[in-house]
Write a structure and sequence with these properties.
This protein is an alpha+beta fold. The chain has helices at residues 2-20, 38-69, and strands at 24-29, 32-37. Strands 1-2 form a two-stranded antiparallel ribbon. Strand 1 (24-29) and strand 2 form a beta hairpin. Helix 1 packs antiparallel against helix 2. The protein starts with a helix and ends with a helix. The mean pLDDT is 84.
Length: 73
């Protein structure tokens, strides 16, 4: 329950921050260069972080479950 509340607070803060910083910015990555709204850049950055953290957490959870379910030899 606390996790859901914390997630909602973070999403709300990121949303408010993104809306207040909606100016267009130039994005450069390797050979690409384009302009996008700062709000979109912030949102995509946070989303990428959430996805990466979820993958790492899920991987650790699966490893822990497999380790616990191994029969003793």
């Amino acid at each position: 329950m606390i996790t859901i509340v914390l997630a909602l607070v973070i999403v709300t803060l990121v949303t408010i921050f993104s809306v207040q910083n909606a100016k267009p910015v130039a994005i450069s990555f390797l050979f690409w260069r384009f302009e996008a709204s700062l709000a979109i850049v912030i949102f995509l950055s946070v989303l990428t972080g959430v996805i990466i953290a979820s993958i790492i957490a899920t991987s650790a959870y699966i490893k822990r479950i497999r380790k616990q379910s191994k029969p003793l030899e």
